[in-house]
Every structure is written in C-alpha cells, then in structure tokens.
Amino acid sequence: MQNYLSKQCQITHLCHSDLSSHSMLHTTVLELFSAQSEEVKSAAAFALGNISVGNVPKYLPIIIAEIKDQPKRRYLLLHALKELITRYSLKEGGDSLGTYSDEIWVLLFDNCESNEEGTRNVVAECLGKLTLTNPYKFLPELQKRLQSSSAQTRGTVVTAIKYTFTDQAQNYDDLLRPLIVEFLSLMRDNDLVGHFSL
C-alpha cells in the first residue's frame, strides 16, 4: 500500500507541470478508460485529473466535453474532474478556477440525478470541493438546492456539504451556520433517510 501511495505522489508531482507539449497525452490516457482492469481505469482517471492541473485551459474543456458526450465513461471522467478541482484549488491562486467554476457547477448538477449512487457521490465530492474555491458564492447556492423537489439533488447536496468542512471552515462559519440548520432539518426527510443514511 505504501508503494502505491508513493507512486501516486510521484505522479501527482509530475503532472502538476504543463504536459500539453505532449499533444497525444490526453488521448492516450482516455484510451485507458477502456482497459479491462478497474485499477488501470482508476489510475487513468487520477492521471487525467492531475495532468489537467498543469494546463487547465487546455484540458478542462476536454474533460467537460467528454463528460457530456461519453455517458459510459462519465463516472471515470467525474473522478478526473474531482482530482482537478482538488489539486487546482490547493494551488496558489486556486480561486482562478472561477473562470470555469460556473460551467463546472452546472455540469455537476446536471449529473446529480444519475441513477448510479457512485456517480452521485463523486458529483457531491466535486460540488463540495468546488464550493471551497469560492464559499461566498457557492455555499448560498448549495443552500438553495436543499429546497429541490428532487430527493437525489437534496441528497447530493447533503453529501456535498460534508466536503466543505475543513480546517479553513472557520473563515466562512457565518455562511455554514444556516446550512447546518437546514441540513439537520433534512433528518426528517423520509426520501433521504433511507437512501442516504441520514
């Protein structure tokens, strides 16, 4: 396990460089999404997300287009997007992801109605981590979505909220307080209690 984590760290550090001069790199990685091995597919998603950190303007539109056009690969592509959001938001100036954040936000909510629980969970993690890039913008948006008529949307938002609790949460505690009240009121939501382990 430690060897695996070491390799993952090495890939992460390598990929934070701009690798766009390797024009076929993303195509090669996307081809690995069709591999027989689930481990290879997972590694390819991890790699694509981390490669994208090095040149967001080049790679993020590719990931977005693939999510929209490739439903069979969507789960893996959402994992790649999660890696990008996670890594990029940790970089200096991570809030500059904001130039893409609205498009990502809409894309994620388009996918929170998926019948696949795994897909909804990845979407929720992406939403939570994207919220951290601009909490003053996105926490109120999450709060609005708690009122959705869709149990899947409400459940995805509840799961997303848990990813907003970090060490930096104290910087926006005032925004989180009303969310917590609504979050707790969902404990009585029969549509969520059985499906989302509330």
Descriptive overview:
The structure is a single chain. The chain is mostly helical and 198 residues long. The chain has two domains: 1-91, no CATH class; 119-198, no CATH class. The chain is built from eleven helices and no strands. The protein has helices at residues 2-15, 25-31, 38-52, 56-69, 74-90, 98-110, 117-133, 135-145, 151-162, 173-185, 190-196. Helix 4 (56-69) runs antiparallel to helix 5. The longest helix is centred in the middle third of the chain and has 17 residues, at 74-90. It is globular. The two termini are 32 Å apart.
Please summarize the sheet with the most strands.
none
Helix content: over 70%
Low-pLDDT segments = none
* Number of helical stretches of at least 4 residues: 11
Kindly state the mean pLDDT as a whole number? 81
Structural category: mainly alpha
Strands, count: 0
Give the overall form: globular
Describe the oligomeric state of these chains in a short phrase: single chain
Furnish the topology, listing elements before pairings.
Layout: H1 2-15, H2 25-31, H3 38-52, H4 56-69, H5 74-90, H6 98-110, H7 117-133, H8 135-145, H9 151-162, H10 173-185, H11 190-196
Could you name the key traits of this structure?
11 helices, 2 domains, mainly alpha, single chain, 198 residues, globular
